[in-house]
Specification:
Elements: H1 4-15, H2 26-38, H3 44-48, E1 58-61, E2 76-77, E3 80-81, E4 83-86, H4 88-94
Length: 115
């Protein structure tokens, strides 16, 4: 369970748009390592979809951090898993909005190129 003062800090980070700082907390690093070990470093999404198992490097909040900060450090929410290990590809599918959107490159002023 997340301590009340830490929950307040997390809510403040979320409100200021700096929730990424949460992932530097020692409590998160500890629980992240626990979840990866629990899942044997295997992507739970790939496993559930009966695809070839892939190495998981990311721990995903099933109920999003912004929606349920009180579950930020909980592996289980009652009987259901709240934190699961996933590979990068599956995490990008789960959070397409988090992928950086790059601006299209402007056309060069001249046709000259240095290829």
């Amino acid at each position: 369970m997340i301590a009340p003062t830490r929950l307040q800090q997390l809510v403040a980070l979320i409100q200021s748009g700096k929730e990424s700082l949460f992932y530097q907390w020692p409590e998160w690093k500890r629980i992240r390592a626990d979840v990866l070990r629990l899942d044997q470093y295997e992507c739970q999404k790939c496993k559930a979809e009966e695809r070839k198992y892939r190495k998981a490097k990311i721990v995903h909040h099933v109920k999003h951090l912004k929606d349920r900060p009180d579950l930020a450090l909980e592996i289980y929410d009652g009987e259901e898993r709240q934190l699961i290990s996933v590979c990068k590809d599956c995490h990008e599918k789960l959070h397409p909005e988090s992928q950086r959107q790059y601006k299209a490159l402007k056309m060069p002023i001249t046709q000259e190129r240095w290829d």
